[in-house]
C-alpha cells in the first residue's frame, strides 16, 4: 500500500511541509501539502528536487577511517570506539577546553539538544552551530534591544502589513515560498521598500528600491530614523509606554541627515526621505532582514539600528508590524533554542550565569558542568590552528566551504589530533577527517524542527537510511554511552519530553500536540495555543520595556585599494543551498546552475576586456579563485558578487568579525578581478 508521509523541507528556515510518497519502502515522489499554514502547498526548486539528493549514489553508507590518503571502511563498533577513545584521550591529556563540537542546524531539535548535552557533560564549553555565521548578531542585538531574538510575526501576517521594508534579504530567491506573502500584501495595496546593493529578484517587487553601497546600512537606517523624528512620524505614546532611551537615541541621529547618508550610501537623499515616510507613516509596517544586515563587522549595530527604527515608529507588537529576521537553515532557530551555542544553555540560559548551570546540573544529574562562554565556531577554527583545540566533532556542517578564509580553515583542521565528521555526504570538511560517520537524512528519521516563524513541527520518518547510515540521534547516544555519559534515549519523543521539562518556551509543545502546522513558541503549557506575535503586551525585559540603543556608522573592515579595487560581496542563488553538498548532487538543479560565477557590471567588464562567460580570476589578500564572468546590471560598478555554493568563494573572504557577535564579514571584501588567459 503506498503511504504519504508528512515531512518538513530539509533546506531553508521557511519550514515548508510536504509529503513523501512511499511504495515498497522506497520514496517515489513528493506531494504538496495544501493545508500547510505557511507554504500552502507551494514548494521551491530545491525541495522539488530533494529526492534526487536523498537517493544520490554518493550518500555515505559506512563509517570510514583515514590513514594518510587511504580511506578504509570500518564497522560501527570500531568507529565509535575510535571516536570515543580519541575524545577521551584528548580530555585526559589536554583537558575539556581542547575539544570543540559543531552541532548542526540541519539536524532536529532533539539531536541538537543531545549534541550540546554531550558537549557539556564531557566538560567542554566549546559547542556552537552555523548560526554564528548567520544570525548571531540578531541573537545578541535583539535580545539586548527587545529581550527576545525570534522573528516577531509569522509570514501569513505580512498580508496585514501596509508597508514592508526588506533590507539585506533576497527572499524571492532564498525564502522563495514565503515571498508569496509579500505579493499578497502588494495586491492589497501595501508599499514595498527594498534596500540591497544588488538588483535582485526581490528588488523587482519594490516600490522604493534603495541601492546602497555594501556595509553602509547604519547610515541609511539612522537617516530614516532621523527623518521620522524630524517629521513628527514617531509614535510618542508607544515610546513613553514601552521604551527607554529615546532622548539619547534622538540626539545620536540628529546629524544623520538624508544628505549625509547619501554621501555614505549612494542612495539619493529624496529616496531615503520617501522610504522613511512610507515606513513610519503607514498604519502597519514590518521589517524583513537577513544576511545583508548580519554578515558584517557592524552586524549587531545594523540589527540594533533596525530595532530602534521599528520602536520609535511603534511598528512592533501588532498585526502587520514587527521585525522579521529570516532564519537560514531548516533548523537554525531550533539549534539555538536548544543551546547549541557558545554563550547559551537550552532556552537561552546564559552559560556564564552560575544559576543556569546549577539548574542543568541538577536536571541532568551531573556532578559538574562547565561555566562560561565557550569558543564560537570561527574561534574554534583559530584555536585548532594554534593548538588550543586538539579534537573536533563536526556534525552536519562544512566549515571548509562555509567559514571565511578557507585556506586558514584547512590548515586548522589538518593540525588537529582528531577530526570526526558526521554527514550524509563526503564533504570537503569530511575529506580532512580521521573518522567519517554516515548519517541518516531528514526523510529517514523523525523529530521536531523549528522554522524561522518559531513554528515547531514534527517531521515523520518515511524510509530507511541507506547502507549502514544511522540517525544523528542514535550516533550521539551511542558515542555518549562509550564515553560513559548518561545519554540513553530510545527515540526523539523521549528527548522531546526532556526538552518540554527544561525549555520553558517548549513546555507545551509535546509530541501528542504536534499535528499539521505544529505550534509556535513560546508555548508555556499544554493548554497554551502558542504565540504567533511577540511583544504584544510588552517586552521580555526586566521592566517590560525595550531599550533604544544608539549606534554610529562605521565603515567595513576592508576598503578597496589600488591592488584590490573592487568590493566583493557573497551570498546565494535560488537553485543551490549553502556550501552545496546537497544541491550540487541534484542533476536537475545542476543542469540549470552548473558552475561558480561572478557578477560584474558591464562597464567594469568592458574596461577589463572581460566578456560574459569568460573564465576570470578573482583574488583577495587571502587567495584566488576562478569563476565564469557574468556581466550584469544587477551589480553597480565597483561591486562584484559571488555565490558560495561552489568551492572557492570562501578562499577569498576575510577574517574580520563583528566584535559583539563574532560573525565574519562575508558581505564585504576588497578584491581584484582579471581575465585568466
Ligand atoms: N536558495 C537558497 N536559499 C537559502 C539558502 C541558500 O543557500 N540558497 N541558505 C539559507 C540560509 S542558511 C540563509 S542564512 C538564508 C539567507 O538569505 P539571504 O539573507 O536572503 O541571503 P544572501 O544572498 O546571503 O544575502 C541577502 C542579500 O543581502 C544583500 N547584501 C549584501 N551586502 C549587503 C549590505 O551591505 N547591505 C544590505 N542591505 N544588503 C546587502 C545581497 O545582495 C543579497 O541580495 O537563506 C536560506 N535560504
Ligand atoms: N561566503 C559566504 N559564506 C557563508 C555565507 C555567505 O553568505 N557567504 N553564509 C553563511 C551562513 S548564513 C551559513 S548558515 C553557513 C552554512 O554553513 P554550513 O552549515 O557549513 O553549510 P551547509 O552546506 O548547509 O552544511 C550542512 C551540512 O549538513 C549535511 N547534512 C544535511 N542533513 C544532515 C543530517 O540530517 N545529518 C547530518 N549529520 N548532516 C546533514 C549536509 O550534507 C551539509 O554538508 O555558511 C556561511 N558561509
Ligand atoms: S522555501 Fe525553504 S523550506 Fe520552503 S521549499 Fe524552499 S527551501 Fe524548502
Ligand atoms: Mo544561514
Please explain how this structure is put together.
- The chain has 677 residues and is an alpha/beta fold.
- The chain has 24 helices and 28 strands.
- It has a seven-stranded mixed β-sheet with strand order 5-4-18-17-16-6-7, with helices on both faces. It has a six-stranded mixed β-barrel with strand order 23-27-24-26-25-28.
- β1 and β2 form a beta hairpin.
- α8 (217-230) runs parallel beside α14 (299-312) and α11 packs across α12 (269-281).
- The longest helix has 19 residues, at 76-94.
- Residues 9, 11-12, 14-16, 39, 43-44, 46-47, 175-177 line the site of iron/sulfur cluster (SF4).
Give a nutshell description of this structure.
This protein has 677 residues and is α/β, with parallel strands linked by helices. 31% of the residues lie in helices and 18% in strands. Helix 8 (217-230) packs across helix 12 (269-281).
Write the layout of secondary structure elements.
Elements: E1 3-8, E2 17-23, E3 26-32, H1 45-48, H2 50-54, E4 64-67, E5 70-73, H3 76-94, E6 99-102, H4 109-122, E7 127-128, H5 136-146, E8 163-167, H6 171-174, H7 179-187, E9 191-195, E10 208-210, H8 217-230, H9 236-242, E11 243-244, H10 246-253, H11 258-265, H12 269-281, E12 285-289, H13 291-294, H14 299-312, E13 322-325, H15 332-337, E14 344-345, E15 349-350, H16 354-363, H17 377-385, E16 391-395, H18 399-402, H19 406-414, E17 418-423, E18 435-438, E19 447-450, E20 455-459, H20 472-482, H21 492-502, E21 519-520, E22 546-547, E23 566-571, H22 587-592, E24 597-600, H23 602-607, E25 615-619, E26 624-631, E27 639-643, H24 649-652, E28 669-675
Parallel strand pairs: 6-7, 6-16, 8-9, 8-12, 9-10, 11-22, 12-13, 16-17, 17-18, 23-27, 24-26
Antiparallel strand pairs: 1-2, 2-3, 4-5, 4-18, 14-15, 19-20, 20-21, 23-28, 24-27, 25-26, 25-28
Helix pairs in contact: 3-20, 4-20, 4-21, 5-14, 8-11, 8-12, 8-14, 11-12, 17-19
